[in-house]
Design goal:
- It is a single chain.
- By secondary structure, this protein is mostly helical.
- Helix content is about 75%, strand content about 0%.
- The protein contains twelve helices and no strands.
- The radius of gyration is 19 Å and the shape is globular.
Length: about 240
C-alpha cells in the first residue's frame, strides 16, 4: 500500500477496533451453539465468511435441524437484514472515490458498525476505499476467526450475560448515536424510531421492528428536512 493508503487503512482499523473487541464473546457463543447443533469448525467458518451477519446467523443456528427449514431461514434472514437496504442507500452518497467494481465488492462487508463508522467518517472527511477496507476487513476477519474459535472451545465461556457482555453492542451504538447528534431534530428522529420499533416489537412480532423503526426515523427525518426547507423559503 502507498503511505497514504496505509495510514487510511490503519485509521479505519483503529476506528472499528472497539466494536471488533465487543463481538468477540458473541463470536465465541455463536460458534459454540453451532457446534452443539452439529456444525463442524469448517462449516462455522464458511457460514461466517459467506453470510457475515451475526443476528441472522444466530437465528439460523437457533432453528437449525436436519433437514434444515431453508424457506423459513431464508425469509427470517431477509427480514432481519432488510435494514441493509436503507444502510446501503445512505452509504451510496459517500462512495464517490470508489470504482463501480469496488462498490460491489465492499458492499458485501456492510454491517451495522461498519456503516455507522463510515457515515461518521464521511461527515468529517472523504470516505476513502482504504479507510473502508480498514473498517471492513478488521471486523470481518475478527468475526470469522472468533466464531470459528467458538466452535472449538467457546462452550467453556458460558453465557456472555454473566460477564455483562450483552450490553457491549448497546454501549457501542449509544456512543455512535451521540456522534451523529445535531441538536433537537436528532432527538425527535431518535424518539420516533425508538417508539415505532417498540410498538412493532409489541404488536407485530418477529424481526420487523428493526425495519419499522428504521423507516419511521427516515420518514421523520425527511419531514423535518422539508419543514426546514419551507422555513428557509419563507424567509426569502
Amino acid at each position: 500500500m502507498a503511505p497514504n493508503t496505509t495510514s487510511e487503512f490503519r485509521a479505519g482499523a483503529l476506528a472499528i477496533a472497539p466494536a471488533a473487541i465487543a463481538v468477540v464473546p458473541f463470536g465465541l457463543l455463536l460458534g459454540a451453539l453451532a457446534a452443539k447443533k452439529g456444525l463442524s469448525p469448517l462449516e462455522v467458518a464458511l457460514m461466517s465468511a459467506t453470510i457475515f451477519a451475526g443476528s441472522a446467523q444466530f437465528v439460523a443456528v437457533d432453528f437449525w435441524q436436519h433437514p434444515a427449514p431453508w424457506a423459513f431461514l431464508t425469509l427470517t434472514a431477509l427480514t432481519i437484514n432488510l435494514r441493509h437496504v436503507m444502510m446501503g442507500a445512505s452509504l451510496s452518497r459517500h462512495l464517490g472515490a470508489f470504482s463501480p467494481a469496488s462498490r460491489s465488492l465492499w458492499i458485501f462487508f456492510l454491517a451495522d458498525e461498519i456503516w455507522a463508522m463510515a457515515e461518521r467518517r464521511a461527515a468529517n472527511a472523504e470516505l476513502t476505499p482504504a479507510y473502508y477496507a480498514g473498517l471492513a476487513m478488521t471486523l470481518y476477519l475478527n468475526w470469522v476467526c472468533w466464531s470459528t474459535a467458538g466452535s472449538l472451545f467457546g462452550s467453556a465461556m458460558g453465557d456472555p450475560v454473566t460477564y455483562g457482555f450483552d450490553f457491549a453492542f448497546t454501549a457501542i451504538f449509544i456512543g455512535l448515536i451521540i456522534g451523529f447528534w445535531k441538536g433537537p431534530p436528532t432527538a425527535v428522529i431518535m424518539a420516533a424510531s425508538a417508539l415505532a420499533a417498540i410498538a412493532a416489537e409489541r404488536f407485530v412480532g418477529g424481526a420487523w421492528y428493526i425495519l419499522i423503526g428504521g423507516i419511521a426515523g427516515i420518514v421523520v427525518a425527511a419531514a423535518l428536512s422539508l419543514l426546514q426547507l419551507e422555513a428557509v423559503g419563507d424567509e426569502r
